[in-house]
Amino acid sequence: ILLNPKEYHEETLQLSATTCLCKFMLLSLELCETHAKMLFDLLKNSTFESVRVSIMVLMNDFYLKYPLAFAAYSDDVYGCLRDRSDNVRLAALKTISNLILKEMVKPKGQISEIAFRIIDKHPQIATLATSFFSELAKRQDGQALFNILPDIFSNLVDGKLDKQRQLNEEDFKSIIEFLLKYVSKEEQTESLLKILLQRFRMANGNPRLWGDLAYIMSKLTYNERTLKCLHDDFNYYADKLVEDAVYESFLTILNNAKKNLGTKPDLK
């Protein structure tokens, strides 16, 4: 039935067969690994929303019983966060956030897919995404979220996305501003700034990328140490200041620094 969806193109039949397959796979690790490709082909290609939702919901059981069985398919799991169906995206977000917060899977670079859901057109999905990051920010004294921010930012800036997922400027800024609310410690700000400066140094010939990096930097809170980093690494971004967006972001950094640290004459 599942191997011939065109011949057996009936939603209830396909859903029942998929549920049976999942329960069968849960009987042993060998069965799980043997039929994994079929399951993920269904997840990606089934024309029935209910089938894709059902598989995503049952991912909780698979990861609980066989946490390493689907390691090779993690991109497909996270890929469901881009599904055309609101219900599939919602089921995927619930499953993935649950697995991460219960420490059943480690957040990796693909977690940027959850960041995209902050601006999802479906209100419940957007709310769940913001709640996920808020909860993650409470873990390990804020370090759990901070550790993955560089990867998230790297995947959001220009050049890292396929054409279907290109962010407009407004959405990009909304995501960045939301995530940076959770960077409050001075050592975290300094560490993130150094990473961004290094990426500036290696970002050649891509004005949009320069602007994105500069915008992220403009949303950090600066102290004496971070301003010194900015000054010491001036050569990393000096040639990019000819771009209006980059120049404006650095102007914002300096103006905010004057307001916050203006009473210290040695910084002027």
Give a verbal description of the structure:
The chain is mainly α and 268 residues long. It has a domain at 1-95. Helices cover 65% and strands 0% of the residues. The chain has 16 helices and no strands. It has helices at 11-25, 29-34, 36-45, 49-65, 74-79, 86-101, 112-116, 123-136, 143-146, 149-156, 169-180, 186-202, 207-218, 224-232, 234-237, 244-261. The protein is elongated.
How would you sum up this structure in a few lines?
The protein has 16 helices and no strands. By secondary structure, the chain is mostly helical.
Main features:
16 helices; mainly alpha; 0% strand; 268 residues
Architecture blueprint of SSEs:
Elements: H1 11-25, H2 29-34, H3 36-45, H4 49-65, H5 74-79, H6 86-101, H7 112-116, H8 123-136, H9 143-146, H10 149-156, H11 169-180, H12 186-202, H13 207-218, H14 224-232, H15 234-237, H16 244-261
Helix pairs in contact: 1-4, 3-4, 4-6, 6-8, 12-13, 12-14, 13-16
